[in-house]
UniProtKB/TrEMBL annotation:
Compositionally skewed regions (Basic residues) per UniProt: 396-407
Taxonomy of the source species: Eukaryota, Fungi, Dikarya, Ascomycota, Pezizomycotina
Annotated protein name in UniProt: Nucleotide exchange factor SIL1
GO CC annotations on file: endoplasmic reticulum
Domain of life where this protein originates: Eukaryota
Length: 407
């Protein structure tokens, strides 16, 4: 009997212990302070099983800024800001006319704080330091053309092997002169420059059959060498006065007497060749008059009147040369975006159409407007034709010119 009573007691105790375990597991956990959402907090957003990570679907604002979760709904009328340090949105109850003490004394424009940037310190230039060069050093090619220096010797030498060799040398230089390195090398040699300018000014230079006329070839070489090559132009300006006083071997006259008058070839030359020569020479002049002193001299010697003569002939062979004239005028006198300084040209007032129709007005500077308008009318279907831009800019320049000062 004692044994049976003891066994029954053990079963009762075991059952009581089992009930206690069930009750403990079923009780809410309060040690961490977290509770199951009540019916009042049923509209929550929970991304984990931990109730402590849940937050209301509708943001509950207080008087202090709190982080706004991306998937929370914001009631209207709150003060919302972006925390620049965390990149998170924050919001609180909006208080009208509330001032932020941290912004006191700072200029504010449309809620944007304007902070004056610190001016960088300008480094002191040591005394005797070399002048700053805007143009960087021109890199030499890895393998210099072997025939280049032979061509230079041929051009500046008075004792050439044959006429054909000279023409071949000129053709080789024209092919390579557009390269910024070789363009600079061509202009660095005063003897080469003198030879090229003498050839360019020689309207009747002899040429072997089938070759490009030498005055045209020389002009093309100079044009390519100077194009977008400030260093090459600088080399030419160094020796400009010496160049213009140089006497060419053929006629013994200084270059200054023939250079500016050689733009248009004699009437005896075929029109196609005249136009091709003019186009090449205009390209060279456009590169040269990027220099202020050379440009002033060109205008003083009647260069603009001679350019106007290129606009007079009619025929498709003149289209390229006339476009070059338009480009020159825009680049140097009418278009500030291309580096032109307005007000340097024209220097004479506009003439009436009647004055420009006759022979006397063919080359007068005041007739530029008339002849450009004539070309524009002939190309009225082409809205992008150069003549339209020149016409409009020239008209605007004349209109804005001071009334007390004649152009």
């Amino acid at each position: 009997m004692a044994t049976g009573r003891s066994s029954f007691t053990q079963h009762v105790l075991f059952f009581a212990l089992f009930l206690n375990i069930i009750l403990v597991l079923a009780a809410p956990v309060s040690a961490t302070g977290a509770t199951q959402p009540s019916s009042a907090d049923s509209d929550l957003i929970c991304h984990t099983s931990d109730v402590a990570d849940c937050y209301p679907r509708v943001f509950r604002a207080t008087d202090e800024f709190q982080t706004v979760h991306d998937d929370q709904e914001l009631p209207p009328g709150l003060h919302v800001r972006l925390n620049v340090w965390t990149g998170l949105r924050e919001a609180k109850i909006n208080v009208p006319d509330e001032e932020n003490p941290a912004l006191e004394g700072l200029p504010v424009d449309q809620a944007v704080v304007l902070v004056e940037p610190e001016q960088p310190e300008v480094p002191l230039i040591p005394k005797g330091a070399p002048a700053y060069e805007a143009v960087g050093k021109i890199k030499e090619p890895e393998h210099e053309a072997s025939s280049f220096h032979e061509a230079l010797k041929m051009v500046k030498s008075s004792a050439i092997k044959s006429e054909a060799d000279l023409d071949d040398a000129l053709e080789g230089l024209e092919d390579i002169s557009h390269d910024i390195y070789y363009g600079l090398k061509i202009t660095e040699d005063p003897s080469v420059l003198k030879a090229l300018f003498c050839l360019m000014a020689d309207e009747e230079a002899s040429t072997t059959e089938g070759a490009v006329p030498r005055d045209q070839q020389a002009a093309s070489i100079l044009s390519s060498a100077l194009q977008n090559n400030p260093s090459a132009l600088k080399e030419v300006t160094k020796t400009w006065s010496t160049l213009m006083s140089h006497q060419c071997a053929k006629d013994g006259k200084p270059l200054a007497q023939s250079f500016h008058s050689s733009l248009i070839a004699p009437d005896s030359v075929a029109p196609k060749h005249v136009a091709s020569k003019a186009k090449a020479k205009i390209g060279a002049i456009n590169g040269l008059i990027k220099d202020d002193d050379i440009r002033a001299e060109f205008m003083k010697e009647g260069g603009m009147q001679r350019l106007l003569q290129v606009l007079l002939p009619e025929g498709k062979e003149w289209v390229g040369a006339q476009r070059k004239v338009g480009q020159l005028v825009l680049d140097n006198f009418l278009d500030e975006d291309m580096g032109a300084t307005l007000g340097q040209w024209p220097t004479e007032p506009k003439l009436d159409d009647a004055q420009c129709e006759g022979a006397e007005g063919l080359a007068q500077e005041g007739c530029w407007d008339y002849h450009v308008a004539k070309i524009m009318k002939a190309n009225k279907s082409n809205k992008g034709h150069w003549s339209r831009d020149v016409h409009d800019r020239l008209a605007k320049l004349r209109k804005n010119a001071p009334k007390h000062k004649e152009l």
